[in-house]
Specification:
The chain starts with a helix and ends with a helix. The chain is built from eight helices and no strands. It is mostly helical.
Length: 159
């Protein structure tokens, strides 16, 4: 895919005046940040992922992007080191250490569950995921009509 096509997909004509473009972008950023920092909020999505682990189309539409859950694993893994090292130095009360460590461990458990379910599904059903990735990459965004052959194909697969 050429750079011009990719930029046209992300930045349609008059994007700076499009409220839809801004709202969609801010929403995606907020959900990804939420998934990375406060993964506990997405426990319902984790349960939904486990319940529908054999259905890639449902897994692809989970709230909080896959990158957000991977970010959560990294952030909370690193954040778990802080209360543990402070507890070793006796500069943090035991109760606060337990709360912070519990928070990080619960976030890690939630994001690790979603991570494992999605990766397992991608390994077992690569053809379905290839189609979903094609649609995500090439489908026209922000309500604009399709302009290329790939966009027409992605729109047909979407329906």
């Amino acid at each position: 895919m050429k750079l011009g096509s990719r930029l046209r997909g992300e930045f349609p004509r008059s994007w700076w005046r499009s409220a839809r473009w801004w709202i969609t972008g801010i929403r995606e950023l907020a959900v990804s940040t939420g998934a990375a920092v406060v993964t506990v909020v997405f426990v319902g999505e984790m349960l939904r992922a486990v319940r529908h682990r054999h259905e890639p189309r449902i897994l692809a539409k989970l709230s909080g992007t896959f990158e957000g859950y991977v970010g959560s694993l990294l952030i909370n893994g690193a954040a778990l080191v802080v209360p543990v090292s402070m507890a070793i130095e006796d500069s943090l009360p035991v109760m606060l250490t337990a709360l912070l460590a519990g928070w990080c461990l619960f976030n890690i458990a939630t994001s690790a569950t979603v991570f494992v379910v999605v990766v397992r599904s991608r390994i077992r059903q690569p053809a379905t995921w290839a189609e979903l990735d094609f649609v995500e990459q090439h489908a026209p965004k922000y309500g604009r009509p399709p302009e290329t052959i790939e966009e027409y194909q992605a729109q047909q697969l979407q329906d």
